[in-house]
Amino acid sequence: MTSDSIYLGRHYVEAELSGEGAHVGVTYKSIDPKGEQSTSCITGNDFSWCVGRNSRGFFAWHAGVEEALDATDVTRLGLYVDFHRGSVSFYDAAGPMRRLHNYTADFIEPLHITAWLSKKDNAVHLVNDKLCNETNHLPSLPVC
């Protein structure tokens, strides 16, 4: 989990994913990293929003609900958060930007970028040195 929180405005970060089982998303700081899977894993609770790859393909997860995405091999993922609008969007950022999935929620706490690696050989590398926000350049993102 990143130490910087997202609680004002709009933010964008990119991550490189490696291996089957790499997941990236946002969660509240109150997540219990040592708790039960339903509350500590970013794919299984109602206070995390993420996307990632498993043996069956590329999926989005929130509140334990898995949704298949129209994507095969996403290696560079864009994550865009508009905190005030309650929006979390995920993009395939390897080529022309293409939105993969969007969530809408009423955020009740600041969010943190986080990753979950289900296998030892997985890796997630945040590409941006720091989160991009309205004052330090947001990319032009497609909405459909």
UniProtKB/TrEMBL annotation:
Provide the transmembrane region boundaries.
none
Q: Which InterPro entries match?
A: B30.2/SPRY, B30.2/SPRY_sf, ConA-like_dom_sf, E3_ubiq-ligase_TRIM/RNF, SPRY_dom
Q: Which GO terms describe its molecular function?
A: zinc ion binding
The question of whether Zinc-finger is a record keyword is answered with: yes
Q: What is this protein called?
A: B30.2/SPRY domain-containing protein
Keyword Thylakoid listed: no
**Key words, A-Z:** Metal-binding, Zinc, Zinc-finger
Domain B30.2/SPRY: residue ranges: 1-133
SMART domains reported in the protein's UniProt record: SPRY
Database matches in PANTHER family: B-BOX DOMAIN CONTAINING (PTHR25465), TRIPARTITE MOTIF-CONTAINING PROTEIN 16-RELATED (PTHR25465:SF10)
Q: Which organism is it from?
A: Gasterosteus aculeatus (Three-spined stickleback)
